[in-house]
Design brief:
The protein is mainly beta. The protein has one helix and 23 strands. The longest helix is centred in the N-terminal third of the chain and has 12 residues.
């Protein structure tokens, strides 16, 4: 059985996330026109440079232990991935939200008002979105945003949740809210759910490691490890088990 290990809490110093969609090109026999087509499911490729030191001085230890757990590439790693966008492009604007879960003595607690379920959010704003279209593009119309602000940027990950179901998509083009804090955000992937929206959060992706990096530790100064990853999907494996050795 394949194991999927949580990514260690190491220090990331450089990051790349890129789409890879293998394709084929052919030429029509009689017309001579070219034709291209994809023949495999797109997989994302990632490069991550990890500091060998880190704020807790555990960087190299985490890297070497993950290499042992991956067992030469037999097992996988789950990464809470950043978008390809410049990491500080959004500035101090934080449009991430989390639905708070309540419990008492290990039993889940559900809140309601006048027969309707009530959700509690953790975040600076509480944007709410409904699926729509913008021209030929799938989109989501979001309310409750800061006014007259760039609220979404290309490649950012967007999720919408009603407390039970969560759907995600990637922002296609920049979106700016109007004076009422409303914005229509174009997406690559259509969402069908309405609910509370997070823009710019991390995306949870499972990768296989394409290399087992090494690094020479100098007498002075820092050092790092560079990993190469390829995205994989659960239906490509007979089964897998999620494990977190670091918690």
């Amino acid at each position: 059985m394949t194991n999927v290990y949580a990514c260690p809490p190491w220090g990331l110093t450089a990051w790349e996330l890129s789409w890879n969609a293998p394709g084929a090109r052919s030429q029509m026999m009689f017309s001579g026109k070219s034709r291209t087509s994809s023949f495999q499911r797109p997989h994302r490729l990632a490069t991550a440079t990890i500091t060998g030191i880190g704020s807790d001085r555990n960087g190299a230890g985490y890297v070497e232990n993950l290499k042992r757990l991956l067992d030469g590439g037999e097992h996988l790693v789950r990464v809470e991935a950043l978008a390809p966008l410049w990491v500080i492009a959004a500035g101090r604007l934080d449009l991430t939200n989390a639905v708070l879960e309540w419990s008492a003595e290990s039993d889940d607690l559900l809140w309601s008002y006048s027969g309707d379920d009530v959700l509690f959010l953790e975040g600076d704003y509480g944007p709410y979105g409904e699926p729509t279209t913008d021209g030929v593009w799938p989109a989501i119309q979001v309310t409750g945003l800061p006014a007259n602000t760039v609220v979404a940027r290309p490649s950012q990950y967007l999720t919408v949740t009603d407390g039970e179901t969560t759907q995600g998509g990637h922002v296609l083009a920049p979106a700016t809210s109007d004076a009422d804090g409303v914005a229509t955000i174009r997406l690559f992937e259509a969402v069908t759910a309405s609910g509370y929206v997070t823009i710019g959060g991390r995306e949870s992706i499972v990768f296989e490691a394409l290399n087992m990096p090494r690094s020479v530790q100098p007498a002075r100064g820092t050092f790092g490890y560079t990993w190469e990853f390829r995205e994989v999907f659960e239906d490509e494996y007979e089964s897998w088990t999620e494990l977190n050795p670091w918690a």
